[in-house]
């Protein structure tokens, strides 16, 4: 099986967790940002979360370094372009990238500049490569809430022209959904699709709440619906697709190891699952690696792989035209 050649779709990939280490060094020089080292292996080692990460919060510390050089329009555009390029070069045909616009305001950019630069980098890559994409705007649950509406308003100008959805990311506390109902409602009214990180560090109840209170159509990770029958039934009944990210799920201790990842059991039981990277650099992975790991661990046939590919197409926040294009890669 040649996993590299398979057409692939990544619906869950963070921009700031997927920066090339060499680009960090080049941007730091240009921007006169001081780095702990100029050696690409040292920078990579600082960015990659170890398999021994005690939890999600430890994993999330890896984002400070890339964010330090992602505060100009040129840097954001370049990093966006390079992420789409890296994915296209391993046969990812459709990529939804997410990031937190509020994390890129440290040097005076406006939200429009931040979002516009990310979209511009993606569009440039779409011109050059056989890849299509969209952006998802993430709100960090631990940040002050006073600027969330501004992010939603700024992104609304790009809706269906590069931006498609709203997400909540960062540390996951029990019952977080309650505090975000008004924001998710507002985003949905303006036309955003909704996906929410839930059931990664937190319980299945968080998944239940994200679907029932926030209107999540997809769930980032969702691992812990296992063991929470109500959440499990709701996800199945409402055809909510789970964006699983196997390597990241091991690093953050959402699962003990790949063998105990519920991805195949969910799929066999009719829960909609997709396979994604989460963070290409922080999780030291690619779509080829994620697909290979899952297919080898669970002895998936090519037919089973393409069932999962089809779930990704069906649940992508893409236009009908893009979905029709993606279906052409099916054998
Ligand atoms: O797996 C994850 N779970 C929750 N939050 C995450 C994960 N990966 C990255 N981020 C958070 O999302 C922000 C915007 O991209 C990142 O800065 C990081 O804090
Ligand atoms: Zn994520």
Compile the SSE list and pairings.
Elements: E1 8-14, H1 21-31, H2 40-47, H3 56-60, H4 64-68, H5 73-88, E2 92-99, H6 111-128, E3 132-140, H7 148-156, E4 163-169, H8 181-190, E5 193-198, H9 204-214, E6 218-221, H10 229-237, E7 241-244, H11 246-251, H12 263-268, E8 273-275, H13 287-297, H14 302-315, H15 320-327
Parallel strand pairs: 1-2, 2-3, 3-4, 4-5, 5-6, 6-7, 7-8
Helix pairs in contact: 1-2, 5-6, 7-8, 9-10
Bound molecules: inosine and zinc ion.
Number of domains: 1
- Please give the CATH class: Alpha Beta
Relevant CATH superfamily: Metal-dependent hydrolases
Associated small molecules: inosine, zinc ion
Note the quaternary state here. single chain
Alpha carbon gyration radius: 18 Å
- CATH-derived topology: TIM Barrel
Number of strands: 8
EC number: 3.5.4.4
GO cellular component, one term: cytosol
Cofactor: Zn(2+)
Binding site for substrate: 14, 16, 170
Note down, in words, how this protein is organized.
Zn(2+) binds at residues 12, 14, 197, 278. Catalyzes the hydrolytic deamination of adenosine and 2-deoxyadenosine. Residues 7-328 form the Adenosine deaminase domain. The structure is a single chain. By secondary structure, the protein is of the alpha/beta class. The chain has a single domain (8-327), classed as TIM Barrel (Alpha-Beta Barrel), CATH 3.20.20.140. The chain is built from 15 helices and eight strands. It has an eight-stranded parallel sheet, with helices on both faces. The longest helix is centred in the middle third of the chain and has 18 residues, at 111-128. The chain is globular, with a radius of gyration of 18 Å. The two termini are 14 Å apart. Bound molecules: inosine and zinc ion.
